[in-house]
Amino acid sequence: MKVFSVIGISDSGKTTTIEKIIKELIKRNYTVGTVKEIRSHDFKMDVEGTNTFTHKQAGSSLVTVRGSNETDIMHQERMSVNDILKCYSQDFVILEGVRDTSAPKIVTAHDQEGIESRFDETVFAISGRIAAEIQEYKGLPAINAMTDIEKLVDLIEEKTFDYLPDLNCKKCGLSSCKEMSFNILNNNKNRNDCITSNQKLVVKINGKELSMIPFVENIFKNTIEAVAKELKGYSQNGDIEIYIKR
Ligand code: SF4
After folding, report:
1. Which residues in 149-179 are b (16+ Cβ under 10 Å) and which e?
2. Is residue 61 included in any domain, yes or no?
3. Which atom of ligand 1 is closest in space to residue 169's alpha carbon?
4. How confident is the model at residue 43 (pLDDT cuts 50, 70, 90)?
5. How many A from CA of 171 to the centre of ligand 1?
6. Pair type for strands 2-8 and 105-108
7. How far apart are the first and last CA of the chain?
8. Inside any domain, residue 178
9. In this model, does residue 200 exceed pLDDT 80?
10. Atom 2, ligand 1: which residue's CA is nearest?
11. 35 alpha carbon to ligand 1 midpoint, in Å?
């Protein structure tokens, strides 16, 4: 699952750029999911007076609205991007306005000051209103999504990669996942250089994979192998699969 973020100040063309990208990715037969960041402390989907608001006020920590055409699950907390992405399985997930991630980024802006306010080492393209005026910024292409969406999505296909889990474990020898992202974007590393690519243990709950630091992965793996070795029919070769019904 490839993940990237589109960031930029208000009215810089962020949502319009995302809308164009979604349509072009779908045209290319990809599935797409999105995550929208809202910074207002007052934000809530539900409003006072609804039945679900009453559930929440009574103390329900997870409230779901099931309609004929839509199901909305409302968590009563701010979740990490890692945890949110466990709910997704699309080919591409676009984060709107999410900056605290190592995922590659497109900056939308009106002017160079707007670019600079959001610029970091994980940016691989500039878009939004300013892309009608400039062709590049600090060596990165500026692409107008209104007139050149195919070029922008070609670049997304080329640059983005499977999500780095933002563990910042430093096992790859780099100081952070952001540094890995920068190196992958500049072809100095590839996604397989992150230890999570060589993961030997996968734990899923309801089909969603749990992220695990190497230390925990080793404990899990060694314990399961030690127990399995005592069982009749155990073989050194082949994968071990365990299914727990709850
Ligand atoms: S090994 Fe992977 S998860 Fe750990 S810091 Fe490097 S890129 Fe991040």
Report:
1. beebbebbeebbbebbbbbeeeebebebbbb
2. no
3. 4
4. confident
5. 6
6. parallel
7. 28
8. yes
9. no
10. 194
11. 23
Residue 39 has pLDDT above 90, yes or no: no
Mean pLDDT of the chain: 92
Using an 8 Å Cβ cutoff, are 32 and 22 in contact? yes
Residue of 3, 101, 163, 168 with the most ligand 1 atoms within 8 Å of its CB, for mutation: 168
**Ligand 1 atom showing the smallest separation from residue 194 Cα:** 2
The token pair that represents 67 in the structure block: 């309609």
Could you tell me if 143 and 216 lie in one domain?
Answer: no
Which structure tokens are listed for 123?
């940016």
Residue type, 144: N
Residues 226 and 153 in one domain: no
Q: Could you tell me the pTM of the whole model?
A: 0.83
What is the CB < 6 Å shell around ligand 1? Answer: 164-165, 167-172, 174, 177, 180, 194-196
Number of helices (H) and strands (E) in the chain: give both, helices first: 7, 11
Say yes or no: 218 and 162 in one domain.
no
Nearest CA to ligand 1 atom 3: 167
In a domain, 124, yes or no: yes
Please report which helix (H) or strand (E) contains residue 181, including its range. Answer: helix 177-185
Residue with tokens 């063309």: 13
Instruction: Say whether pLDDT at 209 is over 80.
Output: no
